[in-house]
Amino acid sequence: MKKIVFSPLDPEYETIDEQVSTWDINEWRKMPRKVRGPIFEAGGHPWRILFFPMGNNVEYASVYLEHAYEPAPPEGWYACVQFALVLWNPNEPSHYVHHQAHHRFTKEDGDWGFTRFAEFRKLFSVQEGKKRPLVEEESCKLTAYVRVVKDPTGILWHNFLNYDSKKETGYVGLRNQGATCYLNSLIQSLYVTNSFRRAVFQIPTENEDLSNSALALQRLFYQLQNAKDAIDTNELTKSFGWDAKQIFAQQDVQELSRKLMESLEEKMKGTEAENALANMFVGKMRTYINCINVEYESSRVEDYWDIQLNVRGMGNLEKSFEDYIGVETLEGDNKYFAEGHGLQDAKKGVIFETFPSVMHLHLKRFEYDYMRDEMMKVNDYYEFPLKFDASPYLADDADKSEPWTYVLHGVLVHSGDFNAGHYYAYLKPTKNGHFFRFDDERVTRATELEVTRDNYGGDHGANGVQNRNEYARINTSVKRSMSAYMLVYIRESRIDEILPELTPEDTPAHLERRFEEERALREAKRKERDEQHLYLEVKTAHEKIFRQHQGIDLCDWEGKDPKAQQAESHKVLRAQTVGQFSQMLAEQLGTTPDKIRLWVMVNRQNKTVRPDTWLTDMEQTIEDAANKHASKNQAFRLWVETHDDLLKSPSVSDPKAANNSAFLLFIKYFDAKNQCLKGFGTMYVKKQDKVSDLLKPLCELMGWPEKMGIKLFEEIKPQMIEPMKPKQTFQQAEIQDGDIICFQEDLSPAQLVASMQSLSVTNAPERIAEIQNGNTGAIADAKEFYEYLANKVTVVFTPKVAESGLPIFELDLHKKILYDQLAQRVADHLHASPTHIRFTTVSPNGVVRGVVKRSSTQRLDQIIIPTMTYNMNNNTNNNTFTLLYEVLELSLSELETKKAVRVIWLPEGISKEEQFEFLVAKQGQLVDLFGDLKEKAKIKDEDAQRVRFFLASSGKYQKDLDDNFHVAGLQDFNTLYAELVPQEELEMKEDERIVTAFHFYREPSKNHVNGVPFKFVVRNGEPFSETRARLQKRTGIKGKQFEKIKFSIVFKAAFSKPRYLEDVVDDVLSDLLGEEDVLGLDHVDKSARGGLWGRAETAIFIR
User: Fold this and answer.
1) Which of 132, 317, 818, 924 could cysteine-pair with 928, CB 3.0–4.6 Å?
2) How far is the C-alpha of 1038 from the C-alpha of 911, rounded, in Å?
3) Who contacts 1053 (Cβ-Cβ below 8 Å, separation ≥6)?
């Protein structure tokens, strides 16, 4: 029976103990609801059957296996058990019901089994094909087959509830931001490569901010070393310049690895880590062609950072390497043209000269399927060893004095298909340690079989992997979804060098210091949040703040205007008394509590904030006072009156004696000479005092003659400033506590200008030059100045061309001034002519909108209205705006007769672009701008005749233009280029021809709209090795950037696939190229607006 009901253990696992226990069941219907069987031992642990004869709340008998520890198992106990439970008739053993399962038994999860083990109606009746019921005369037997299994990793059949990666493995995971599992896998692989981590730590970053990707990576590595829980990668991806588009798009691990290496190499230059990455990851390979019948060889040696190996049809790593260095014979129609020897039979191939200490092998698991016209995953079965000898793949003359044996360090796995998948990694951090699975947040120990066999790909049940149940009727073959995508091997003789034990000294000290500071800040914020309910925000203003405030009301209580004087904010314990708070304020202001009076500020119906009443109960708590007087959802606002600062009053000598017959007034002074309005002070007056009674004390305070002409205004609300009648009493003028009176010297505009000139107030026009209706000049009247303040906007003027050397500055302007007045103000600041100033609007997010056309009736608020609308809708400070400006060589009226022509000069092939803009008469020709181009581009006299103009559209070559081409024919969608005609084009032979070239990515339809097209000379019979060299010279692209370009022939026929040219020297471009075909350069578009129709491709990048 055992062989039938109890499946054999997977050969991957090891059995610790196996036991069988049978329990005789009698008087079934008389048994209690829950009963336990006899205890038996297996694997050193006590076990028993838990039986519900009448079901566990179901119409089935319920049977479970449970541990029999009493009262509970030891702390941390667990056992991995495979078991089968069989209910059978001893009189007819072939009549049975069985179920089997496996489970990780723990203290918290001590039983496992089957609630619906056997249906009642089938237990007590004779079933078809049987002679007896299973339960006969209320009796039967219940057998438990128990196999205790060794847990090789500590997580066998784990449910991962409350799993602690750090505690179990010593490592922590990385959180997935959306689709960043591929990034997590690569980062973990590099992190456990200790020499790489050390090199990253050696990059100087102490003075860098988090936009530096090297610092972000250092911080991430530091956290991986010290954190107890999984880490976010937000800082790293943000430093890369990624946004949601990159976060939620899976990318190629190989491309990410290369980009990261390039970025770090650049940051390591000039540091102690320089060349550290190349010493770890770079090897050398030689591409060669050897003639068979003559002594001739063409070869080149190149560096490589990783090796791409074919998977399809290979089967294992050894065959992939053999395929990689396989030799191709060039014969027949495919003979090689050897210089000096003509067409020859030859052998072509690649051989490795050295392998790096850390070898990254990228398996080609994704290929383009031409039948389906899409990328597909290659899930073929593919073996890779824990150790292999790489010496058979080295050149005969390679240095083999040190063994080239490599041991497996990591396997990056892809699970799923091309369109939807997941990445994780198996890594071996130490020389003699275990493999661990790094799967986003979770890190677990892994067996070598999990690392290798489970990631060979192919089918379950195929390629020697047998179905786990030999008694299953069908030997199924199930496609594996997971397969190795990238392999990391370390040279065995260098493993101590690659995986050194890092010490605290290897970690930059500033990292720990920064994290400690951030931790302290977080703790302070947490404490503040936790104690927030104990405190109340109280805002205060006092005499000093009022005197410095220029604007409406006493100060800016809400902090909306950064240029206004702000109220002071206090965090006050709710239980603190008013008296205690008054004591604190007195100490801050350098006075005593008995000389302070706290006035409650209220919102008046006219939208002003003014004092209403003072607090008299010093024992009252701040919370009670706020609940009684403060407005909902606003801070508790108080005016702090200090008796020593009160102005001399015409009738109230003792502020303490002020009663209901007296008012507290706020006095402001409009200084017309300096064009400013500020708080002057506070004073008490009686209701029956006349307004004119203020004149004498004000003259005394200002040091003016007693009969000086003074104007008085009441500041009622914004844009409602009324002159006061001197003969009225304050009661008749309806003055109350907290009202504001403004005074000024009574000057005519002419007197004001003369006075300003005599005082040499040169900065007044810079600050105030607009009055109501947009008339330029100084403001002589306080009411008009208030009106100016209500309509004042701050405009930040930024040069449109950053390299122009012009300054960034800001002006406070009346928003109703006209265009010409705006230009005059800017011109005065720049000491330039206003007729030569041109403005361009810009959106709040920095996008340039358009040039502002000059109009004599257009006002400033109409020019900046899009920005104003945006600001008002977003509740931001709507008083500050930005305009771009230029100082032109021509006046705007002259400019209207010109056409702006943008020329992109190509001084070095297509690798460098210099952009110039010229103003040409609308009826002019290209020859009219050539002189300026020659001067700006520094074209030599002897090269002037070689300059060629050509048009491009969407990155494709259109046509050449002669000097007489009319600029009116240039369209906005065309790009005008200028270059020196290459010497080889000037010296073309009769059998040579010209082909145009353009750039694309993956598909010719996805051309680089900002790519620079070019002409190229095709030489008859020239092997592609020489063509490639000329292409590098023609384009001016060098190094790795050129190596990444795949050259192809793009045929005229629509929807045809491009014909890619071999990297080596077997293809002849002139033989393959049709009359109307073009040359295509396939590579990633790195321009800011790359991609089809201006859309950027999703190619990966690191800022």
Assistant:
1) 924
2) 9
3) none
CB atoms within 10 A of CB 270: 8
State which amino acid sits at residue 892: L
Please report, rounded to a whole number, the percentage of residues in the chain having pLDDT higher than 90: 60
Question: Could you give the number of structural domains in the chain?
Answer: 6
Residue 117 · residue 25 · CB < 8 Å: no
Q: What is the pLDDT of residue 1064?
A: 54
Rounded to an integer, what is the distance from CA 568 to the centroid of its chain?
37
As given in the structure block, the two tokens for residue 649 are 């009053």
Residues 689 and 562 in one domain: yes
What is the number of other CB atoms lying within 10 angstroms of the CB of residue 648? 13
Residue 610 token pair: 């003014």
3-class SS at 863? helix
- For residues 723 and 783, the answer to whether their CB atoms sit within 8 Å is yes
Given a contact cutoff of 8 angstroms between Cβ atoms, the answer to whether 424 and 451 are in contact is: no
Please tell me whether residues 707 and 832 are part of one structural domain: no
Nearest to 1074 by CA among 1057, 1049, 1054, 1056: 1049
Which positions are catalytic? Answer: 181, 422
Do residues 74 and 19 share a domain?
A: yes
What band does 763 get if pLDDT is binned at 50, 70 and 90?
Answer: very low
DSSP string, 902-914: EEEEEEETTTEEE
Rounded to whole angstroms, the Cα distance separating 114 from 118 reads 9
Instruction: Record the pTM.
Output: 0.66
**Domain contains 44:** yes
Residue 39 has a CB neighbour count (10 Å cut-off) of 14
What is the DSSP track for 967-983?
Answer: GGG--TT-EEEEEEPPH
CA 815 from centroid of its chain's CA atoms:
38
Strands, DSSP E only, in 310-373?
A: 328-330, 336-338, 342-344, 346-354, 358-363, 366-369
Question: Pairing mode, if any, of strands 956-961 and 947-953?
Answer: antiparallel
Pair of tokens at residue 958: 């259109």
Q: Which two tokens stand for residue 18?
A: 């196996």
Residue 965 CB neighbour total at 10 angstroms: 17
pLDDT at position 189, please? Answer: 95
Question: Does residue 207 sit in the same domain as residue 293?
Answer: no
CA distance 801 to 917: 11
pLDDT at 1063 over 70: no
Is residue 718 reached through a cis peptide bond, with omega within 30 degrees of 0 on the bond before it? no
For the CA atoms of 753, 758, 762, 764, the dihedral, rounded to the nearest 10 degrees, stands at -40
Tokens of 94: 């072939």
Task: Give CA–CA dist 819/663, Å, rounded.
Answer: 47
- Predicted confidence band of residue 753 (pLDDT cuts 50, 70, 90): low
Express each pLDDT in 900-930 by its tens digit.
Answer: 899 999 998 998 889 998 889 988 999 999 9
The answer on 124 and 78 residing in a single domain is yes
**Beta strand residue intervals within 5-52, DSSP E:** 15-25, 35-36, 40-42, 45-52
The number of angstroms, rounded, from the C-alpha of 553 to the middle of its chain's C-alpha atoms is 43
DSSP bridge pairs for 103 = 81
8 Å CB contact between 70 and 99: no
Within a domain: 550: yes
Q: 181 and 134 in one domain? A: no
Range(s) of the domain holding residue 245: 165-277
Mind spelling out the 3-state secondary structure of 486-522?
EEEEEEHHHHHHHCCCCCHHHCCHHHHHHHHHHHHHH
CA distance 1097 to 1006: 9
Please name the residues in contact with 32: beta carbons below 8 A apart, sequence gap of 6 or more.
none
Both 377 and 337 in a single domain?
Answer: yes
Tell me how far apart the alpha carbons of residues 667 and 695 are, in angstroms, rounded to a whole number. Answer: 12
Q: Which of 149, 176, 202 is the last residue of a domain?
A: 149
CA nearest neighbour of 826 among 886, 908, 869: 886
Do the beta carbons of residue 564 and residue 555 sit within 8 Å? yes
Q: Is residue 1051 part of a domain?
A: yes
| Pair 585, 680 in one domain | yes
